[in-house]
Amino acid sequence: MVKSKDMQERKSFTPRPRKKVLVSNDFREVLVSQETSIIEQRVITIILSCIKEEQSLFISVKSPLNTSSPIQRSFDDYYEGWANQGAVDFEIPLKVLNPKRIMKNKTIKSALVNMANINWLQLKDSSINGYQAVPFIMKPQWNKSYLNFKMDKAVLRNLLNMSHYFPLKKELAYQFSSSNTLRFLMWILKFKKFGGLSMEYSQILKQFSITKDKYEGRSRFERDFLQSIKADLDSFNDLSFNYAYHEGKYTFSIYDTSKSTGMNEKFVSLNDLQVDRSIKYLKRKRTLNDANVRILRKLFEVKGYKELSTRLKNKIDSDLYGDNYIKAVFKLLEKQA
User: What is the pTM of this model?
Assistant: First the structure.
């Protein structure tokens, strides 16, 4: 029997330009349940950009017209005609993963090896009525220009189960400052239709497998976890959240960031958060009084966090404090003008 051309070809995926990618509910649960690095999240986003057309085959399109819908393809139908493959191939240009060449090759390599670890993903196994540990990707390879790896069909099935799915901006993985941001976003999106939720603090920690002593109390949890996530989403996403704490419970409200201006929302940008942290640090280290702090905050407002912090970093005598520190700041800025 002569094989057709389709059966002789191996299925291979490469990234395509996207504004948004689609996260299946199955995979959303995976992202919430385990920690992933920003590099891993970027790889995940690129993979989702590669398979968006394939995902669309499994999305039921609702039509206002009373017409007969095409028969929905099953996963087995989707693989019909493939050359009996147990895996599919991905090829990702390094310039797509690391466009500004900020990430070190060693760090990228470590992330790929970690994703190829057998404990990276747990999939339901109906044969034992339980779960099976599997690698997310297999056989990662790299050179100066490309990353290549394979993905098992069982893992791809997880990404293609589009009975419920969530759109995600592709660029978010390139803008987040915290690896917790994507994880938290995937979690809170589940409650979007309710406008938010209330949950006990201890239960939130449990949702993200965070030990009770990791943040040394609730205030540290807000500072190091919630505030940085909120700043990311306020700055880069179309949905963000507010939160309040009362009698052991956090209440989260979800809002559209494009419509938040002019409303009584506590809107914190990433720049604002970075400025606040810098000022708190400098107030303590440089023994600044309230007047010094007001002057410094005004300088940050005019220059912006990134520009001012770059100009000041390690350039002022460590023995200068209070008014003398502020005078040295102005003197330095005048020299650099």
Answer: 0.71
